[in-house]
Amino acid sequence: MSISRVSKVALSVSSALFLFGCHSSSTDSDPNTGVIPSEQDVLKYVDPFIGTGFNGHTFPGAVVPEGMVQLSPDTELMGWHSSSGYHYDKDTLFGFSHTHLSGTGMGGLGDILFLPFTEDNAKYIEDSDDYREAISVKMDKASEVAEAGYYSVNIAENGIKAELTASERVGFHRYTYPEGQPQRLKVDLNSILNSDWGSTSLRNKLTVSDDGYTITGERDAAHFSGWAKNQKIFFYATFDKKIKNVQLLVGGKAVDGLSAEHISELVYDNAGKPVKRIKADVTAYVEFEQGGSQALNAQVAISAVDAGGAQRNHQAEAGLSFDEARKQASEKWANALNLSIEGGTAEQKEIFYTALYHTKIAPQVHQDVDGQFRGMGKGSIRNGEGEYSIAYGQATEELPNFSVYSLWDTHKALHPLKTITEPTRAVQYAKNLVQKYTESGLLPKWEHLGDETGTMVGYPAVAVIADAITKFPDAFTQAEKALALKAAIDSSTYDNYAALATEWDVPVLDRTLTKHIDYIEKEGFAPAIQRENGEPVNPDYTIESVSYGLENAFYDWAIAQIAKAAGDTSAEATYLARSKGYTHYFDNNPMEYADYGVTGFMRPVMMDGTFMAPFDPYGTAHETGNYTEGNAWQWTWFVPHDIAGLKAIMGGESAFLTNLEATFTAESQGTETPDMSGLIGQVAFGNEPSHHIPYLYNWTAEPWKTQEVVDYILNDMYFAEPHGVIGNEDVGAMSAWYVMSAMGFYQVNAADPTYTIGRPLFDAVTIPVEGGTFKIIAENNGADNLYVKSVTINGNALEDGLFFKHADIKAGGELRFVMTATKSEAMVIQP
To answer: What class of enzyme is it (predicted)?
Structure first.
């Protein structure tokens, strides 16, 4: 639907077949063949404004599935809400830029900003001495419209209507100016998101062609506060009207000619110490010849490789009118949103399809039409699909290159969802991650446009790889499995640190191949940090020790599955033993924790093996304590690979259930980080480490409580409104949880091809799979009928009544629930 904040108007989309695994993208060279006839116009249920309010950090602009270009309005340039460049509560507009991140807690993009205007240039020239006050205008919020592949808004000051659409590598702009007004455009290479957190421009260059119809340029950017260190972008922009006048500014000062370049420089004090950086700043103020239509059309191609790549991308994709490009974008989204649902309210359908939409923005294509891309490891230029092949012994395989892997967030639900809805992509992602290891020496942790950021916890790529290999073993040769195992081992051992330090930026390496690994290999656990007056008092410690210890134990279990597939029994045994490392952190002491109603917590461990004291299970500190974005209540449950072992160290079945119940009913108190949102007791559902906790009741004698909690989350923590995501959307992670849970099941262990049931939201969901469809049916479903009375898969009872395997999802298959409103009729399975 074309979503207006005043009204919602249905967008008519041509009837289409929903092709499984096919996005009508040049990168999807091996689509699956499952087909569903179009029974509903799914695009009318997509609202890109969902998640743009509160802390969702999504953007409403134009993008196609997996597109390199995310052309969107920028209403926030600094602070946490500038991560996506847009926050719904703002009516400011700095312009429309071509690159964004969806739902993250860190930004740094916002490349190549366009702002149309009619007034005198002077109003739009920033003070060169103080860039903190960037020029902005006001949007007419009532006119704002967003749909899949399209965005438009009117500028209040001057009445210009701005419209945006996109292909994979080209952003299409259409600006309709008021009758008789000058048609002017600001092209800003300096604008960047999160500049207050360290993002800056290092080098800008812009050239206006002699023919007056083309502007080309490039920008080097960096983030000096711990995010992506290097990013290059080249652009090639054409206009359908000739440039009449142009004024170029460098560092806020006018320069002559049609070309300008500016390089960032450091300013030093009298002692020779750098005190600030003057960022590169090139801006063009352009006026176009009038005549004919009041509309100005611009087509902007981007490339991370070079100027020639941007031009070739333009030649391949820009030969369309705005309306043709918009139509193609809609068709690509219609093909991509390939699940069919029956039942549910209109609002539930809107939440579902918008969530599915958000799961398909990234990972994104990161290569030019000729296959070239900027790879990991010093940004070398490599070849991708078409000419891109990886040799595994005698075999070769063509693979596309992708980027924006927010793996700590997305390995938990988004990548498992992809194995169901896009198995071809799931396999390609796993192989692409291994390819990035061959480029840099380590598996990616949080990869950003060919650059490693070292952000978040552990080595989560191994979970994505293990999930794909265990679900699709025949899609990987033995040589590929062996290389995946080597990549996993090299990324989880500390022996290769010294060699990598000669090639990597050391601070980034320290965040990627962390000291926790060294301690865990030598001591079995990561020692805790203890502070007095804000300073560490113990010499041997690691930051966020408990979270790293628990996460790395899970990742080691995933590596054991890769080793098993590769036939390496020795590595399998080694990593299975390492996966028990979580036991070091649990303090089973019912007497001490009686006031909390639990038998124990996962606690920080000192170097001598004792638990850190004093201890507050509510205590947390963002990026400086012993837990990542949470506290002991939440992290005590992060043992998804060995729930039986977790039960044992807690004291058995009864203690496990008692502890779980206490976590859901614990009072809210103590310090909370911004990521600790969506609290249910002390389950912080707004952040990924808590996402599996609602399903843990399925390992108890009261599985109906999972159905109650999942029902509550689906209905009370997701909304068809801008504030409709309870925490950072995290590049599809929050949305993937909703999609899977609304279908009625979830994968608690992201590296194990086993699903457990929850509470299906819709009467029926049809998933195209190779050769046919898999259907989920909920009989007697309804808002109050939230309990599962019985469930079968392909006519058979589920494993232990509550679990089924990925292999059970097949063409012609069926997962059938019978629902009831009566709790006493709900299934009870003795664990």
So the answer is: hydrolase
For residue range 153-173, what is the model confidence (pLDDT) as tens digits? 999 999 999 999 999 999 999
Q: How many CB atoms are located within 10 Å of the residue 129 CB? A: 7
Tokens of 508: 């980034």
H-helix segments, 636-732: 643-650, 653-665, 704-716
Mean pLDDT of the chain: 90
Give the integer Cα–Cα distance in Å for 317 and 32.
24
Q: Which DSSP string do the residues of 141-156 spell out, in sequence order?
A: EEEEEEETTEEEEEET
Q: How far apart are CA 106 and CA 195, in angstroms?
A: 11
Say if residues 663 and 681 touch (Cβ distance below 8 Å). yes
At 329, which helix (H) or strand (E)? helix 322-336
Confidence tier at 379 by pLDDT (50, 70, 90): low
The residues that bridge with 746 in the sheet, in sequence order, are 756
Q: Would you give the DSSP letter of residue 124?
A: G
Q: What is the SS3 assignment for 518? A: helix
Using a 10 angstrom Cβ sphere, with 0-12 exposed, 13-18 middle and 19 or more buried, the burial of residue 416 is buried
> Residue ranges of the alpha helices (H) in 156-281?
none
Which residues, in sequence order, are CB contacts of 270 under 8 Å at separation 6+?
A: none
What pLDDT is recorded for position 26? 33
Please give the angle made by the CA atoms of 48, 688 and 634, to the nearest 5 degrees: 145
Question: How many CB atoms are located within 10 Å of the residue 398 CB?
Answer: 15
Burial class (CB in 10 A: 0-12, 13-18, 19+), 602: buried
Q: What is the pLDDT of residues 237-269, one digit of tens each?
A: 999 999 999 999 998 899 999 999 999 888 887
Please name the residues in contact with 570: beta carbons below 8 A apart, sequence gap of 6 or more: none
* CA-based nearest residue to 650, from 660, 641, 640: 660
Q: What residues contact 574, with CB distance under 8 A and at least 6 apart?
A: none
On the question of pLDDT at 11 being above 90, the answer is no
C-alpha to C-alpha distances, 192 to 486, 764, 790, nearest whole angstrom:
38, 44, 54
Task: Name the 3-class secondary structure at 530.
Answer: coil
User: How many angstroms separate the Cα of 586 from the Cα of each of 62, 541, 552, 623, 631?
Assistant: 47, 18, 15, 21, 14
Please state, in angstroms and rounded to a whole number, the distance separating the CA atoms of residues 726 and 729: 8
How far is residue 458 from each of residues 233, 410, 520, 545, 547, measured CA to CA in Å?
Answer: 29, 13, 12, 11, 9
Choose the weakest-confidence range: 119-123, 128-132, 775-779: 128-132
Quick check: helix, strand or coil at residue 234? Answer: strand
Q: Around Cβ 747, how many Cβ atoms within 10 Å? A: 24
Task: Report d(CA 152, CA 363) in Å as an integer.
Answer: 25
pLDDT at 807: 96
Structure tokens at 413: 């639900």
Question: pTM for the full model?
Answer: 0.93
Q: Strands 754-757 and 745-746: what pairing?
A: antiparallel
Q: How far is CA 794 from the centre of its chain?
A: 33
pLDDT of 350 higher than 60: yes
Residue 431 burial (CB count, 10 A): 22
* Best CA proximity match to 668, nearest among 633, 701, 711: 633
Task: Provide the token pair at 405.
Answer: 């892997």
- Per the CB < 8 A criterion, the answer to whether 167 and 67 are in contact is yes
CA-CA distance, 25 to 35, in Å (whole number)? 17
Q: Confidence band (pLDDT; 50, 70, 90) for 460? A: very high
CB 344 within 8 A of CB 762: yes
- By percentage, how much of the chain surpasses pLDDT 90? 78
Burial annotation 751-760 (CB, 10 A radius, 16+ → b, else e): bbbebbbbbb
- Residue 818 scores a pLDDT above 60: yes
